[in-house]
Amino acid sequence: MSEDILDRLVDTAEEISNIIGSEDSELDQDETPKKRGRKKKEMAEEIKGSLVNKRSKETPLHNRELLSSGSTLLNLQCTGKASGCYPKGTYVHIVGDSDSGKTWLAMTAFGEASLNKEFDDYRFLYYSGEPGGQMLDRAGCFGSKAAGRIEQINVSSPEEFYDDLDTKHKEGKPYIVVLDSMDSLIPLDDVEKYEENKELRSKGKEAKGS
After folding, report:
1. Which of 17, 74, 100, 147 could lock onto 138 through a cystine, CB 3.0 to 4.6 A?
2. Residue 118 above 80 pLDDT?
3. Quick one: pLDDT at residue 142?
4. 168-172, 185-189, 199-203, range with the lowest pLDDT
5. Looking at the structure, do residues 98 and 166 belong to the same domain, yes or no?
């Protein structure tokens, strides 16, 4: 079964459940078969109309606009599509405890992109503020194609990250960016304040407030 067909089946699953749930409540069991048949037809037309209106109001997500997470279930949960999880041109914030698999999920996106021709001209930018992603066997886990395309940039502050990304953005080539992780970055103002207070403490003076 193709992914497009599977997507259509998933899209209509909820509507089917609504039909089943509403039939018993709206149809009088004592009505004649002819009258019941007419009412069923009216219900079917109403549902058909709601489906058409629903699809006309929504902006459809096409397979070529999506990047897979590597998990069909996660794709379906996030977009309702079996083919993808992350729409092009979007920002995704993955939240989780330490060692919960955030880095693995991000690296899997690179692996999926390396197998998808829609991302053949994309750069894979991996900004690292912690060692997790550096310890993985990228070629063994996510494929040599992905490993060969990942550009690792080590950063320690938000300013470093944004400055470098701005430079690469102005180069005009599309990219997939992973920042691993935002919480590990320390603003330069905080670093400067720490160094200043450290110097004061070394001289026996009281450190300044924030």
Report:
1. 147
2. yes
3. 94
4. 199-203
5. yes
How many CA atoms lie within 13 Å of 87's alpha carbon, on the beta-carbon side? 11
Structural domain including 31 reads 3-57
Q: Rounded CA gap, 80 and 73, in Å? A: 9
13-50 burial, b for 16+ CB within 10 Å, e for fewer? eeeeeeeeeeeeeeeeeeeeeeeeeeeeeeeeeeeeee
Are residue 139 and residue 206 in the same domain, yes or no?
yes
Give 125's strand partners. Answer: 151, 177
CA distances from 148 to 73, 121, 127, 143 (A): 28, 14, 16, 9
The helix (run of H) or strand (run of E) holding residue 18 is: helix 3-26
User: 143 with 193, same domain?
Assistant: yes
Tens-place pLDDT, residues 121-134? 999 999 998 766 66
Count: domains in the chain: 2
- Asked if 155 and 52 sit in the same domain, the reply is no
Quick one: 135 and 203 in the same domain?
A: yes
Is 81 domain-assigned?
A: no
Tallying the residues shown for the chain, one arrives at 210
Q: Single out the residue of 105, 71, 75, 95 nearest to residue 87, CA to CA.
A: 75
- Identify the pLDDT of residue 105: 94
- Backbone φ, ψ for residue 176 (5° rounding): -115, 125
